[in-house]
Design goal:
The protein has 269 residues and is α+β, with helices and mostly antiparallel strands. The protein is built from 4 helices and 18 strands. 17% of the residues lie in helices and 46% in strands.
């Protein structure tokens, strides 16, 4: 089985084709656990399987490193867009169409390594949901939605990652979130920039960045009136991501996530 390992701002993925029945009979959850573990495969945060899709350039199945499925992945979609452009799967590098379980995702090439995706609009927004004694913003992107909890913290909180990890672990499985949640801790620096880290469902730890997490952060900050303009640049441990969006009454629309992509290696597994 041929694969390509990529990352978007440090969020890493194994991409492999199933466009012509290459993985027929494979249990993809088992395959994800094998490939994503550095002990038995290249190691990554998730597995992206390319599948045929009607009315799109390519379909995207996403598996976390524990074998569970995900509705969509923002950084993964950006990496897949680059893969599709460079492998001739996309007809137009300014309108790469990716069909994920959460819905159609459109992407475009900004530069050789910089790609932008339009994230799915929020289907659920609850700006103040109490969970484990925390005041969280709860946001689902897409339908079925990717569940995210966003917690604002002071910048000093990032100095104790172990304490943040324990808070993230507790919130990730809180009864306040029936399907679990990805948990982002964010500190707004000046109304246009933020620092954040995300404890990801399925990875069960912090990742170097989370694209849909940045989308949820932008939605929560915008609708809470915390941004000076409808855009925010977010520094995560693996790199910088930018989100622009539009406010429509009490709703957020047209979320665009932009950031770097990188090809790490290609091989056989």
């Amino acid at each position: 089985m041929r694969y390509t390992k990529m990352h978007g701002a440090g969020n890493s993925f194994i991409l492999t084709d199933a466009l012509h029945g290459e993985l027929a009979g494979e249990d993809l959850g088992v395959l994800a656990r094998r490939l994503c573990s550095p002990l038995t495969g290249p190691g990554a945060d998730g597995l992206i399987v390319l599948v045929p899709a009607e009315d799109a350039d390519v379909g995207m199945l996403f598996y976390n490193d524990d074998g569970s499925t995900g509705e969509m992945c923002g950084n993964g979609a950006r990496c897949l867009a680059r893969y599709a452009v460079e492998h001739g799967l996309a007809r137009d590098d300014q309108d790469v169409r990716i069909l994920a379980p959460a819905g159609l995702v459109r992407a475009r090439r900004i530069g050789r390594e910089i790609y932008e995706v339009r994230l799915n609009d929020p289907s659920v927004v609850d700006l103040h949901r109490e969970a484990e004694g925390e005041d969280c913003a709860y946001v689902e992107l897409g339908d079925p939605g990717i569940p995210h909890a966003v917690v604002e913290v002071g910048e000093a909180a990032f100095g104790d990652p172990d304490a943040l990890r324990e808070r993230g672990r507790a919130l990730r499985r809180s009864a306040a979130f029936p399907r679990g949640a990805n948990v982002s801790f964010v500190s707004l620096l000046d109304g246009r920039r933020a620092r954040a880290i995300t404890f990801e469902r399925g990875v069960e730890d912090f990742t170097l960045s989370c694209g849909t997490g940045c989308g949820a952060i932008a939605v929560s900050l915008l609708l809470r009136g915390r941004l000076k303009e409808p855009a925010v640049t977010i520094d995560m441990p693996g790199g910088r991501l930018s989100v622009s969006l539009r406010r429509e009454g009490d709703a957020a629309r047209d979320l665009f996530l932009t950031g770097p992509t990188a090809v790490v290696e290609e091989g056989e597994a």
